[in-house]
Amino acid sequence: MTVTDGEGAVKVGCATCHTLREPSPEAVRDAADLEEFHAGLTFDHGELSCRSCHAPPGYDDFRLADGERVALRDSMDLCAQCHGPQKRDYDHGAHGGMTGYWDLDAGPRTRSHCLDCHDAHAPAYRGMVPAFPPRDRFLQGHGPASEHPAPAHDDAHPDRSARR
Amino acid sequence: MSHDDTRKDDPTDDGFWNRRFGRRTAMKAAGATLGAAAFARAMAPLTELRADTSIDEILQRHYKELSPEDKEQVFARLEQEARDQYGAEVSISDPRPQPGVKFGYALNLSVCIGCRKCAEACHEENNHDRPTNNSYIRVLEMKKGSIDLEQGNAWYDHPVPAEDRYYMPVQCHQCDEPPCVDVCPVEATWKEEDGIVVVDYNWCIGCRYCEAACPYHARRFNWKKPEIPAEEVNPDQGYLSNRIRPRGVMEKCTFCLHRTRKGRLPACLEACPTGARVFGNLLDPDSEIRWVLENKRVFVLKQDAGTKPNFFYFFDN
């Protein structure tokens, strides 16, 4: 049974279960150790354990390294306590995109939350399949470093060099 | 010497044709015919041209010489052309540079994953030709440890980021000393007060000198009329930026001036999923772009070319 829907959004308040039962003492670092609940959770976040971030009692809040509780809506502070350089860059607009206006006198701006791109339990940014490349008529895939290097001599176009 | 002497070996030939129509004359006549035919063939495109162009367009003056009333007429004509040729309702604006603004753009090479969403967003925002998937941005896949642009591959088609590679999107850098502006024989391209190098598409003659001069391959040429389905045309257009260009003119990234001169972010930045792009006003000391230039390891491409780009690349620590 899982407390998340297919896309990872938590559908049940943590306190719903955890005011009635304590988290399993076996699960320190990996959800695979659990026999019930939280099945399917992939965990790959360094040497952290569940309770590094999830705060007893109730586990509805997070906690910082010094024990201070952080509400769900302020969870970026939790990431920031270890990932300071990224948070500093984020505050200066150099990490984690934005939409809207560069000129804040002219209009608003929407910023992403850390979790919009990074899964908190396995935050390494997964790769993507890129959008399509340009369809250059003569040089499609024949650049010097491409997977399909051009033939040494292009018989169809004897005067055309294969390199841009 | 009379022509008769050349045929005196043949008694049946009285030199009749030779007197009236000698070899020299025949060569002249054939040459003139071929010349006339070649001239007609060379002039043939002009007859087709009449279908697509109007007297108004041929007589239109350079953008810098247009009065506000002229501009209204020009934009109305262009909007009508978009209706006729593409079936799309568009509105063409002409936002002027804001005072106290000089645009700068920075790109974080530690964060860019080469997904090409920026190039795709540019393709849609700027009404590019669909079949060639044209865009002002080319993302080069570079080997880690190398900055050799000649080895960059723009045509990778595997999941990204790949092992041992980093990704470098390249677009017009809006240089402070743009070679493309220097070489234009008709001054169809120039640098405006906010730093953007623009092109008057109706003045450009399509000689492509600017494309040859640009060290970054930022310039694109319209080999054919762009093909865009009506429902995909971006109707929010600028005269100097993303209106649909005709065949035979040059074009390039304008930092989305139809958006940025109104304070909005360029389309490529909004599309970037990792937040590798930073844009803003270089003259504002509190802007993000200034923070990047002051706090990150920043460099420009082909610095020795002396172009003084306003597009900066940086790595995180």
Can you offer a commentary on this structure?
With 164 residues, chain A is an alpha+beta fold. Chain A has five helices and four strands, in the order ααββααββα. In chain A, the strands form two sheets. Chain A has a two-stranded antiparallel ribbon with strand order 1-2. In chain A, strands 3-4 form a two-stranded antiparallel ribbon. The termini of chain A are far apart. Mean pLDDT of chain A is 76; it is low at 143-147, 149-155 and 157-164. Chain B is of the alpha+beta class. Chain B is 30% helix and 15% strand. Chain B has ten helices and twelve strands. Chain B has helices spanning 16-20, 23-52, 55-59, 68-86, 117-125, 179-183, 209-213, 257-260, 267-271, 288-295; strands at 91-93, 103-108, 138-143, 165-170, 189-191, 197-199, 220-221, 236-238, 250-251, 277-281, 297-299, 311-315. In chain B, the strands form five sheets. Chain B has a four-stranded mixed sheet, with helices on one face. Chain B has a two-stranded parallel ribbon with strand order 1-8. In chain B, strand 5 and strand 6 form a beta hairpin. The N and C termini of chain B lie far apart (94 Å). The mean pLDDT of chain B is 91. Classes of the chains: A alpha+beta (164), B alpha+beta (317). Chains A and B meet through helix 4 and strand 3 of A and helix 5, strand 3, strand 10 and helix 10 of B.
